[in-house]
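BUG: 3D viewer hangs when loading the predicted structure for this chain

Environment: internal workstation, default settings.
Expected: structure renders.
Actual: progress bar stalls at 90%.

Input used:
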Amino acid sequence: MRRLSILFTALWVLLLGFALAQQTAAGTNISNQASASYIDSAGQARTTTSNQVITVVQQVYSFTITPDGIPTAPGQTRSALPGAQVYFTYTVTNTGNGTDTINLATVQDTSDNFDFSGVTLYLDANCNGRVDAGESTVSAVTLTQTGASASACIVVAATIPASATSGQYGNLNLTGTSAGDNTKTDTNNWARGTATTAAALDLTKAASPSNAVAPGATLTYTLSGQNRGGSAASAITNVGGTGLSGILIQDVIPNGLTVTTSGSNPSGTAGAGSVQFVYYNGTTWSTTLPATITGNGTVALGMVITGSGAFFPQNASYTFSFQATVPAGAAQGTTYSNTATLLYNNGSNQTVTSNTTTNTVGASYGIAVGPNGNPTATAGADSQTIASAISGQTVIFTNTLRNTGNTSDSFTLAVSGAPSGWVCQLTQTDGTPISGPIGPVASATNYNFQVRCAVPAAYTGGPVNLTVSGTSVSDTSKTDPTTDTITTVTSGYAVDLAARGNGGDGNPANDNPPAQSVNPGSSANFSIEVVNTGSNADTYNLTSSVPAGWSTVFYPDATCSGVLASPTPAPLTSTGLMNPGAANKKCFIAQVQVPAGAAPVTSTTNVTFTSTSTTLGSVSDSVTTGVSVNLLQGFAFTPNRSGTVTTPGTIVYTHNLSNTGNAGVTVSIPAFTSAYGWTYQFSTDGGTTWTSSVSGLAIAAGGSSPLQVRVIVPGGEPIGRQEAATFTATATYSGGSTATSGVTDTTTVVGGDLRLTKSAVSYQGNAETTVRSASAAVANPGDRIVYTVVAQNIGTGNLTNVRISDPLPAYTSFVSVSASATGFASGTVLYSTDNGTTWSATAPGTLSAGQSIMVGVDTNGDNKIDASDIMAPASQITLIFKVVVQ
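Structure tokens produced before the viewer hung:
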């Protein structure tokens, strides 16, 4: 009997643990977004993100009624006198992922001896197996997904007919049907009531508290009963091997609970006989109780009501009570199920099994957020500091969150305190943006994340104190902050413009180029150089201040020789991207073009050249010089222009036609034929009309006319293709003489981009057979979601070091990942789960919460992804990422 009781208890704990396994709550959003990093065709590091896929978890209905039983093997049996009432005890548990109402009903057997009368269902609020004063009748119970309201105790009270004879029995079944999904039922819960005129002791068990308990709490178990039969109950000799004669009530201590035997623990009373407490060590019984008993599923505490013969009369009652302590570190969801047994004699030895009490350890939520690797840092140490940062750069802090609760939980993260203009983002450690809650994070587990703040170019000063906090999704009162501090921010932008050979020397006295003298209609070439004296790479626009009607064209001086190269290179208006330091200086020829007919100028400080940061307009540097000019007549077509355009794309250049002669002219410009099939058009009316050539344009003496050139570049042109189109304007004076002037427009094709798209499909169950949602908009717990991430080089230039990253979404478990590539001449797909530190050609078999999968194509065979790996135009990487909803 002892072994059978112990086995039953252990099995019940196991089954209940399965039943209480939590599913992701209905209405939960599962969000997922992929990211990619790469180096574009201009050598610049880039990042991009895919669209976001959001899946809403749907409600799944599921419940259990226990104990189970069939008519021939009922789950519980009660005995009482004919005409007396018996109690059948049940537990209804919601095993779905949302609130549900379970409709309850009873069914009577047709193959037994009798039907019960007065069958009534009660909500057993304290789960003690009896109907107490104030407990209400029910026909349905509404149960939540988690917590104390996830299950309910039901007592079915039924009366044995007074006409029943001793030994006859009736069978009764409690059935349940989900109100949310009436296909979900539980109908195998048969119980049996037996009529008897012999002694009939019953046994009920109560636990206080009756359901949810906290770690470290004390449980009080109370076993009680009464002789409801027609004669006195007799003692069992050497009952349970205790050496005592009497009635034995025994209770196997649930695994993990601790009983301290002192004072009034345990305690008990009996309406007849004496009370003796006994202890079972898994092998034998003893009347000596240990000071401490720790439950292991085998050891038991008991009470013997001692006596001899038929000593326990009709209606006599008893109680047996003891206290047990829940472990302080008990995990949420841990269940302590307990069923007691009673041994007595009514002519033969009888065993009575009590109802089962079940206590579930409730969730205890907690969070700690702190510096990297130290989430539980105490006051005074709960911060981390970067002494100095540079404007225009990104400051990165790694912080650590720890789940200090006793159950898995998800958390929302927030960062505040950033100055106006700062852009702070929360990311995974691989840089993937965090969207929505993180987790679930297991109890006592750390989770690293990053705060990335882009410091505005114009910001200087400090200190900057960022408050980084995490909040439990399950209990928003549980939150914890930490501080990330930047002591000071210095400017990352500065520039030095100087005469050739003097840039970056820190001496502004030698920056100005020497003055020059030219004739009207000609040019003065000044050799200058630009040095990025800041900390960040930057591009500088080159501008000039010259007398009205004059213009300046800047040309690259690749060799820093100070001489305009032949043939004339394409003009420019900016330096292009420059890295910091004098070793990275760039030289230019500033060609000041003096219009024909310009008045004599003798000033030596009438020309200023300026380099201005394109990132921070307040950062600039200027040099001044002079140009002496003599008056000459002529005709000018100015200035040269340069620009960039995508493919396909259009760019418009603006020029000026100037007549500095003493008579009116008519101007003509022939059509230009492109070597690449590009289209060139002209407009003399501000872009209203466009023609392929210009003729008969009248310009008065001393007058001028604007001219626009439109370049239309078709699709498919390679990056870097450049065409310098020279247009010659012929001015015919009224006397018949002519003058010509020309400009060169240099157009360069730019492009190269990585497009990242994401799609998903959800399937019913963890198999890809029946589609739940073609867009993965909805899913049920246990459903599989298949994400497809496609990275395409949609530009016309090569990309390098392309890495696609996708995090494991919250509320899901990893199934598998695979990737393929098309459009590559050769290469091997590699995988990384540590942010690109190590790579493998074998896809990972596991991925834990917070981890990301990263893929790339190794095109040079060195078993890693870096700047040597090339992704050509039109090539594609496809990532298939499969998860199952928890």
